[in-house]
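Quick one, probably user error.
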């Protein structure tokens, strides 16, 4: 995730919290409960689901639409200057150039109807993915930071059955990438943010775990039930700042049947049933 994504998310979260300054003095549990109620109220007021609004505040996934931005300006009672600042951040993010995935590689991804596949950059942000990957999990949508979704987006991590194992591997890769790019300020800021919000990430980071290139990825998908997938990470020749991940199932298994169902929905409108 780029630094601007985090800037936008932090701005919206701060402005929402300023609407209810009395929550700041509450005990932790009461403040958490009040914050959830407040986020739910804001989501309802701007006409989106709580899950959608949570992704905006977490900087996960796509930027909010123009309609949602206009509603946020009204509901958050932004001044003209604050509204202009919000729009500036969105324009800046839209203008941010992301690394380009080789067109032949992107075409290869789309040619695998039953193998979920995506390409990430060195900050674990998805640069390209095929329809079946996006149907398997929202964390594989283009522009989504897999690390942040893994730890902060309940729509992503609540589906995972072997959460501890997958989070440990993801944290290990994040640790390696941080060592490989020690001067990347936006990456460091993202790591600090996740560490502040999620103690489980700090715990996983402290472990001496090798970043495995393959393993199990077990899901409880809301549309098709249990999926027993196997992931594998591949280097991309001549492109050190990108890598390919595939997720596949053993043939003639219930998981493959589930993938066929998701394939049908992803080929219709690129979104699985929920």
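Nope, works fine. Designed sequence:
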């Amino acid at each position: 995730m780029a630094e601007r994504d985090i800037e936008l998310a932090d701005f919206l979260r701060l402005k929402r919290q300023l609407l209810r300054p009395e929550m700041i003095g509450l005990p932790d549990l009461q403040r958490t409960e009040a914050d959830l109620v407040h986020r739910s109220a804001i989501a309802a007021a701007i006409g989106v689901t709580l899950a959608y609004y949570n992704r905006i505040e977490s900087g996960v996934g796509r930027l909010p639409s123009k309609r949602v931005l206009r509603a946020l300006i009204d509901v958050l009672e932004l001044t003209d200057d604050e509204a202009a600042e919000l729009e500036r951040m969105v324009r800046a993010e839209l203008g941010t150039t992301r690394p380009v995935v080789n067109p032949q590689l992107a075409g290869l991804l789309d040619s695998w109807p039953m193998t979920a596949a995506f390409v990430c950059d060195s900050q674990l942000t998805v640069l390209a993915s095929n329809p079946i990957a996006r149907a398997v999990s929202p964390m594989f949508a283009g522009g989504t930071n897999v690390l942040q979704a893994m730890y902060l987006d309940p729509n992503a991590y609540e589906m995972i059955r072997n959460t501890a194992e997958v989070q440990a591997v993801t944290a290990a890769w994040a640790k390696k990438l941080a060592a490989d790019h020690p001067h990347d300020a936006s990456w460091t800021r993202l790591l600090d943010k996740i560490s502040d919000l999620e103690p489980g990430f700090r715990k996983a980071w402290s472990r001496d775990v090798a970043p495995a290139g393959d393993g199990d990825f077990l899901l409880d998908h809301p549309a098709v039930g249990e999926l027993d997938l196997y992931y594998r990470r591949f280097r991309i020749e001549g492109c050190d700042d990108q890598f390919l991940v595939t997720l596949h199932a053993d043939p003639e298994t219930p998981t493959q049947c589930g993938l066929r169902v998701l394939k049908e929905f992803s080929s219709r409108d690129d979104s699985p049933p929920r």
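Residues 196 and 202 are 8 Å apart (CA to CA).
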